[in-house]
Design goal:
- Residues 1-22, 123-160 are annotated as: Disordered.
- Residues 136-147 have a biased composition (Basic and acidic residues).
- It is found in: Cytoplasm.
- This is Serine/threonine-protein kinase RIO3.
- It catalyses: L-seryl-[protein] + ATP = O-phospho-L-seryl-[protein] + ADP + H(+); L-threonyl-[protein] + ATP = O-phospho-L-threonyl-[protein] + ADP + H(+).
- With 515 residues, the chain is an alpha+beta fold.
- Among the domains are: 161-226, no CATH class; 233-366, Phosphorylase Kinase, domain 1; 368-501, Orthogonal Bundle (Transferase(Phosphotransferase), domain 1), CATH 1.10.510.10.
- Helices cover 43% and strands 10% of the residues.
- The protein has 18 helices and eleven strands.
- A five-stranded antiparallel β-sheet has the order 3-4-5-7-6, with helices on both faces.
- The protein is globular.
- The chain starts with a helix and ends in an 18-residue tail after the last helix.
- The protein binds adenosine-5'-diphosphate and manganese (II) ion.
Length: 515
Amino acid sequence: MDPVEVAAAPDAGPGPAWQSKCPWGAPNTTSISCSLADVMSEQLAKELQLEEENAAFPEVVAVAEGPFITGENIDTSSDLMLAQMLQMEFDREYDAQLRREEKKINGDSKVSISFENYRKVHPYDSDSSEDEVDWQDTRHDPYRADKPTTTPRKGFIGKGKDITTKHDEVVCGRKNTARMENFAPEFQVGDGIGMDLKLSNQVFNALKQHAYSEERRSARLHEKKEHSTAEKAVDPKTRLLLYKMVNAGMLETITGCISTGKESVVFHAYGGKSATEDKVIPPECAIKVFKTTLNEFKNRDKYIKDDYRFKDRFSKLNPRKIIRMWAEKEMHNLTRMQTAGIPCPQVVSLKKHVLVMSFIGKDQVPAPKLKDVTLSGEDMKKAYYQILNMMQQLYKECNLVHADLSEYNMLWHDGKVWLIDVSQSVEPTHPHGLEFLFRDCRNVSQFFQKGGVAEALNERELFNAVSGLNITADNEVDFQAEIEALEKMNEDHVQNHGKKLSMFSSDGDPPIYDE
Ligand code: ADP
Ligand code: MN
């Protein structure tokens, strides 16, 4: 608090009390007030708001002014709130001091000591609030129109005396109580969940804060002790996510690693019980963990950066969130494929960068990739026609191009081909969508021509068969040029008219080239 203010003369002319305290006479009315509460809220409300918006639970994420503490409704008159805010500020100052000391001691010595463990606000804590946003909770496909939200803009539901606002104390209280279920399994919440308890937002927020910091503390403590093989492949945050899945009963056990790729690690797990009755967890699951080491993803930027479904969000996101978008993208794409009846893994759950899906294979043995099986001539032909069909379905019904289709991403299981690995799949109108499709066609054609399927179309024929476009060039170079010209035309159209050409879109009929 500013000592000058406290010492101010009590009789300094007319105006509001705070104005009259100013020792330099009456300030103009636009000057800023300076009570403790105001200083605190100015400094921290923004941070708190950000933190809360990110950390708050699903429905709150969607509605910016949820029942949680935000910049607007922050209650600085509450002692508890003020105390917490002060504490936070003190902790930060303490840390800053520690850092200075650390620097002083270390100087430019080659061997340095660290005060990391003495810090109050751990970097692991401070940056993890953004992690609380969970794509599971924004399950809608960003491509499709949004469903109306449950609490309308006006902020209330119902009529007359039955009106219920989103701030309704009883409703909020019950919701808050139910939300305690989301706390870590080891966090003791008593029998509250089963009773008709109504927790105020303030109490709930305090509890939640505590639950989270306990959770993180415990994760930190155990970080160095766990060393099982499955766990070694992933970072502590991911481990915590997996641990929670097992703890929640969704997974029975995680048995081990099936694949370690550049961009992902895939685990096998036995499915557990579902929390809701309408959803069945497959007996065996595959867990795809998208790697959070960023450099691996750099060369794949173009797939997601230019995907207009994600365009708005891309620019605002940090790299960790972008990686989550890969997982989210794979989920949406798999869901579309599932709807079209294309054999592919079924989505079970998505938590941040961890996607759980059904396991293609049996008894922990994953189905072989097409490149690893030797099929009879008959099966080879069968597989070819099935893939031709799937590519058309993918394009026409799912409005997708796989974009990494090859014998590496097709599994042979139960006498048919299953498509996997669709995180990079894009819509045909993606600025490079048609080029990706052409590459897919080249891979497929070459594989089956080499594999002795006489009926296999060449890559250009296959491209036309899948897209319904009628590109006539009879050599690779010209064909490619025509594809790029089409893409460019589409982009120009987007620039000028704000929407895509209808030529690649598919409403059942073969697309017509109309401009
Ligand atoms: P990457 O981007 O690392 O290629 P993939 O999705 O292709 O990721 O998965 C890597 C490997 O893991 C696959 O080649 C396959 O062998 C295995 N795999 C992935 N998903 C499944 C699944 N649902 N069922 C069985 N095996 C799977
Ligand atoms: Mn793959």
